[in-house]
User: Fold diphthine methyl ester synthase from Coemansia spiralis.
Amino acid sequence: MLYVIGLGLSDERDITVKGLEAVRSSERVYLESYTSILMVDKQRLEDFYGKEVTIAYRETVESCSDEILKDADKINVSFLVVGDPYGATTHTDLVIRARELGVPVKTIHNASIMNAIGATGLQLYAFGQTISMVFFTDSWRPDSFYDRVKENSAIGLHTLCLLDIKVREQSLENMIRNRLIYEPPRYMTVNEAVEQLLEIEEKRQENAYTKDTLAVGVSRVGSDDQIIRAGTLEQLLTVDFGKPLHSLVIVGHRLHLLEAEVLRENAVDLEGLNRILLRDYNIDK
Ligand SMILES: *[C@@H]1O[C@H](CO)[C@@H](O)[C@H](O)[C@H]1NC(C)=O
Ligand SMILES: CC(=O)N[C@H]1CO[C@H](CO)[C@@H](O)[C@@H]1O
Assistant:
């Protein structure tokens, strides 16, 4: 059996009881390390699970799926995913390959940012399409996310923005020379995401949002030191959200009374927030 197991959001103890049983029954345990990071290191996972854990980098999963799946028709293999297995789409490859090899697959879910973002007080049913923000480079500043935000905003829905994570990235030079030397990991901050959002609004000028649009920045959701702050995009430019991982929600223009209430609780500047709520938002009771 191949178990694809969600680890939850925060530390080694967020795994479900079912997930833990599967890990303990597995001969080999892999931890995917490319779509997200857990806030603890591998050693703590190994101590807690009582199993050796192999980190599976993007190359491993894509090029060595047969190695991961070796003998999995006879033994149990666990593939651990931070958050929920289907929070990101990348694992589908492994699951399809398992089916081709006749290896049964079982998924064990856990929380991911896609539902934990409810901690902002914004209702999950009132979210539209989720977008991913990638780090801009000098020559690559993709703005396709802008249309998604615009569509969501046209019908008053919130937009969850997942922020870029760069682990095991090679510099162009190292890639050309085929040297397996990696740059230090980079995690996009709320501030960087807002800068990029405002740059694209400036360029497109279609009012998908403005510097006065309300947004909620979050970091380390699910951990004891999570931060949730609501304010205008401009205000969030300067809030320090601390260590990774960060995410951002652009607040839609239709708000329920209770959603507005939680925004107030997390306001960077309560007076300013109230002014903008009154001026730009429709609040339903
Ligand atoms: C695989 O896991 C299941 C459920 O935990 C267990 O019942 C089964 O004995 C395990 N198989 C092996 C070969 O360890
Ligand atoms: C992050 C998260 O919500 N993890 C959950 C995973 O499942 C266990 C229950 O088995 C919860 O206790 C965790 O909170």
